[in-house]
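[Archive record]
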Amino acid sequence: MKKIWLPLFLAFGLFAALPLSFDSATAASHGSAATEDQLPENLENLMDIAPEHQFTLRQGSNRIEVKLFQWTLNDYGLKTEVDGIFGPKTDRNVRQYQQDKGLVVDGIVSMNTWVAIYAEHQPPADDNELPARLKNLMAIAPEHQFILREGSKRIEVELLQWTLNEYGLNTSVDGIFGPETKRNVRQYQADKGLKVDGIVGVNTWTALYGEY
């Protein structure tokens, strides 16, 4: 009689323990998942592409790049479903984001909006250290740099603004060449004995490069 009940007892004990083992495995699985504030690896890899080479996205787009944009909008504070479908809700949040950043509010994610989005993922840099993505622009000789003037919206404007700011002319580093940037460019040109026209051409670029 003992020989019959012992295996049954052991089998029952094993069965009773199964739910506990399953719950532990499930908990471990959730513990290893990426945190909500960490950009998933498959989206982070998309950022190896320069902003100016990213796809232009608009309502109706259905690509993985849309997920990167939606994730960033969501992290920024504009609640957006990360489903890779550029629908009306995403369009509305894109427009709000563009308005917040002083960009053209058209709901189209092109280079200037991509530059702003990439900036959301940049770790805070040492105040005295030029960020690598801006330092890379200096591999271009001053005479081959873009001519910048009021209204320009390029990553090169960020390099200009960062340098003016470091020089001591308080300038927002937002990639948009507005009135404040123009005023500070003119002051910088006056300080350096350059033609004071508020246009960043080869002579002003040469002076800016000299700051480094």
